[in-house]
Amino acid sequence: MLTLFLSFGTQIVAAQACSSYFPLDEGTRIEYEITDEKGKSAGSQWQEIISVAETAEGTKAQMRVEYQDAKGKETFETEYGFICSNNVVRIDYSSLM
Q: Which of 7, 25, 55, 81 could crosslink 95 through cysteines, CB 3.0-4.6 Å?
């Protein structure tokens, strides 16, 4: 079983209920440490909000994600967009392709 450890960088804003799930401030970075059943590091992941804009659809944000293995080698990196409107988060899955 893997365990996640969360640490929040920069700042967190609670302007909308959606920000409880996705902090909606540019530069906010969430880091996860992934550990194995013995508590040893199995890797890490971080997510960073790289842009936020208010639109007619709601709050539109772009997030960058990176995964690293236990040795710190980057294994995956991507960006995706999402919109928060009326306490609902809609992920732009086409941006994950």
A: 81
